[in-house]
Write a structure and sequence with these properties.
Number of helices: 2
Strand order of the largest sheet: 1-2
Radius of gyration: 16 Å
Number of domains: 1
Order of helices and strands: HEEH
Largest sheet: 2 strands, antiparallel
Shape: flat
Strand content: 15-25%
Structural class: alpha+beta
Length: about 60
């Protein structure tokens, strides 16, 4: 799950503010609707991952 890609796909603006060594610093901004779309996408992604993990556990047991 690439959280920055998820933010972009939700309509948010993601800017690279700087880089120090290997660390990158980003700013993310957008409308309240874009934030809601991002939260919905994150929730769906986590739900799918949880379902996959449960299916794997049931298959192994």
């Amino acid at each position: 799950m690439d959280i920055l890609e998820m933010a972009r796909n939700s309509g948010m603006l993601v800017m690279l503010d700087g880089r120090i060594g290997r660390e990158e610093y980003h700013s993310v901004s957008g409308s309240l609707q874009a934030l809601q779309r991002f939260a919905d996408a994150l929730r769906e992604s986590l739900s799918l991952k949880a379902n996959e993990n449960n299916a794997c556990r049931q298959h192994v047991a």
